[in-house]
Automatic annotation (TrEMBL):
InterPro entries: ABC3_permease_C, FtsX
Domain ABC3 transporter permease C-terminal residue range list: 165-278
Name of the featured protein: ABC3 transporter permease C-terminal domain-containing protein
Keywords (A to Z) from UniProt: Cell membrane, Membrane, Transmembrane, Transmembrane helix
Pfam name, any one: FtsX
Keyword Cell membrane part of the UniProt annotation: yes
Topology in membrane: Multi-pass membrane protein
Entry-linked PANTHER family: CELL DIVISION PROTEIN FTSX (PTHR47755:SF1)
Annotated localization: Cell membrane
Membrane-crossing segments per the record: 16-36, 160-185, 216-239, 259-277
Leader sequence residues: none
């Protein structure tokens, strides 16, 4: 018994090209979505690390004076700890700025006090500076929260840009599918005319195209999602192997929410293709009446 011939012919080279385009758009959209979420993760992690931290710069004093200043800071209300950074800690802190050669000899380094404030009632930088100046120290306290706010704003801008890219790619995919559906409808106009003569309604004809592009969208979305998963896994593995991922860059982790984005992409692509195909066919058929 032979297999019945479908009302719409099997996919051809044009649909193969459409499959590639939709899969590529889904791939880029998933990467943009993961980047948008990664910027949020990076901002949250980095802000949590620096919130409540403060640095005190001491001028015109020696190591002994710095220890005395740290003791004064520790005695202030709202301060949890205060310690003078050692020479090794200073070199490690400034190493990214001076490169692998280290700090050149003869470069004067200020004495720094690392301060941790209490989470419940943190001391502010002005209070610390005033207390040290009252004790005769030439010191300036700087709260890290100021820099954290600037980093959050910068990462927030990047996150909005990534979300905008996702929206743009989604709209592009819908437009491409709508154009391909219209071209397919024109190419199969003789079949559509026969269906109309047989009494088929527009909704039945639209359903044929809708199902075809629904399946194409699912397959293309799955291909794009799997490709994005492979690329993201390579990035995560390389960053963890190197052990030097910057905390100010998007943090790709492949956690539950990242995997959820990857999982819903094929469904979203299929629904978008289905909606675009149905709307295009329905509008085209009504326009010919």
């Amino acid at each position: 018994m032979s297999k019945p011939t479908p009302l719409l012919p099997e996919s051809d080279a044009r649909e193969a090209a459409l499959f590639f385009v939709v899969a590529a758009l889904c791939f880029l959209a998933v990467l943009a979505a993961l980047t948008a979420r990664g910027t949020y993760t990076a901002a949250k992690a980095w802000s949590a690390q620096v919130e409540g931290q403060m640095t005190v710069r001491l001028m015109d004093t020696d190591r002994r004076g710095a220890d005395e200043a740290a003791a004064i800071v520790r005695g202030l209300y709202g301060v949890e700890s205060a310690s003078v950074l050692s020479q090794a800690e200073m070199e490690a802190l400034l190493a990214p700025s001076f490169g692998p050669g280290g700090i050149p000899e003869g470069v004067p380094l200020p004495l720094l006090i690392a301060v941790e404030t209490m989470a419940s009632a943190p001391a502010d930088a002005e209070t610390v500076s005033s207390a040290l100046k009252a004790a005769g120290f030439n010191a300036v306290a700087e709260a890290h929260a100021t820099y954290a706010a600037e980093a959050r704003r910068a990462l927030g801008t990047l996150r909005v840009a990534a979300i905008g890219v996702v929206v743009l790619l989604t709209a592009t995919a819908i437009a491409v599918i709508a154009f391909a559906t219209h071209a397919a409808l024109l190419a199969r106009k003789d079949i559509v005319d026969v269906l109309h003569l047989a009494g088929a309604e527009d909704s039945f004809i639209a359903h044929l195209f809708e199902r075809r592009f629904w399946i194409l969208g699912l397959k293309a979305g799955a291909a794009g999602s799997v490709s994005a998963l492979a690329v993201t896994a390579m990035i995560v593995f390389s960053a963890r192997s190197a052990g030097s991922q910057s905390q100010l860059l998007p943090q790709l982790s492949l956690d539950f929410w990242d995997l959820l984005i990857l999982a819903i992409t094929p469904v979203a692509a299929g629904l978008a293709a289905r909606w675009a195909a149905r709307g295009t066919v329905t509008h085209s058929l009504r326009a010919t009446l």
